Amino acid sequence: MANTKSIHGEWSSRFAYILATTGSAVGLGNIWKFPYITGENGGGAFVLVYLGCVLAIGIPIMIAETMMGRRGRQSPINTLSTLSTEANASKYWRYLGWTGVIAGILILSYYSVIAGWAIAYVFKAIFSGFSSDAAIVNASFDDLIASPVQLIAWHSIFMVATMTVVMQGVKGGLEKAVQLLMPTLLVLLLLLVAYAMSTGEYFFEGLSFLFHPDFSKISSDAVLTAMGHAFFTLGLGMGAIMVYGSYLQGGVSIAKTTLYVAGADTIVALLAGIAIFPLVFANGLEPGSGPGLIFQTLPIAFGNMTGGWLFGILFFVLLVFAALTSSISLVEPMVAWLIENRGFTRVNASVISGGAIWALGVSVVLSFNVWSDFKIFDKTIFELLDYLTANLMLPIGGFCIAVFAGWVMQQRHVRDELALPEQQYRIWKFLIRYVAPTSVFIVFLHVLGLF
Fold this sequence. Notes:
Blueprint: H1 14-25, H2 28-40, H3 44-72, H4 76-86, H5 94-127, H6 134-146, H7 148-166, H8 170-197, H9 201-211, H10 220-233, H11 240-245, H12 254-282, H13 292-304, H14 308-342, H15 346-367, H16 381-408, H17 411-418, H18 422-447
Helix pairs in contact: 1-8, 1-12, 1-14, 2-10, 2-12, 3-4, 3-9, 3-10, 3-12, 3-16, 3-17, 3-18, 4-5, 5-7, 5-14, 5-15, 5-16, 6-13, 7-14, 7-15, 8-12, 8-14, 9-12, 10-18, 12-13, 13-14, 14-15, 16-18
């Protein structure tokens, strides 16, 4: 089975796979979420805990998910069905594939809405710039959120861009897109870091905040937050890594490429922090200002600073690009399954998947305004989808991937795919069997309020 090829095609090279998978991992979580949770949890000590969690939990599970994808060579649903049959295991393991595919669909339904905000801010930066007055910035954001027509328009633009890429296929769409978007994203990020360096003493204050550990600020909640984010930022448990792994050529080292991807993903998150915190400190703003850091706090900084107009544009273009490289990987598992199981062309599968996600996204848009009073379990539609995916579906998916790769698959098949030296294989096996599932289970209990 290891020598078969996916009917959807393959990446043209190892580098193309690394770019694509890095693009899948790098998204709003790196540039929107990582800076604000670092700010909320005290800075440098949190970063160290986060890096440790990436090494001990994120990378082993990512290796496992990629390995499963390459061995199965199909959509996550069909891959789990095939691999469970190969291992003489329960047929119910295929539902692990469904969990990942559905999680990706649900995530993209609200992810595209947030990405739409970023597109709106690109145009706002171009045509009117940002104010240095917090009241004006907050009122502008509130006006955007309150307008279903605007939000649906931006959401629609982002979904059309996503599906246009996906319908072109593995090499013609996914690969070409990341070859353009990822280098551009890195250049934009480095330009923003250079801009942050111009703040002088505030740049060093930002570096100190980000890299100087003060463990007195670390709580058990902060450790669990770092553990959860290390897992989620790599895009694990949602089918994306598995389907991208199914397009990876045989003979390419899964472990090495995973280290490259995890390293690049972490570097992007740290660069985002290096770019953002000096601007926050230079303008006397609060680094722990939560989810509003990007859309409400940073615009004030751009409005205050020389050259803020240009760099405000660059920042939100960066945010849109990061969102797009992730969004194409979120929908690809569903598109692959429709092609394999329903015989659709890639174009038709893309239109059907994109249309369903767009419609669900409209309900997310309305949950911010017209339907804001409509709640399920005391949560708006947006809050419910976010909670279901981030706090339930992804931890369950990650836990099950670790168990399946570590305990269910025949170890000769795992060894065959990974082709690791004996000592390295033993380390990975220990991490995937014991450390990763235990850690993810603890996170899961925590988000349920049981730990």
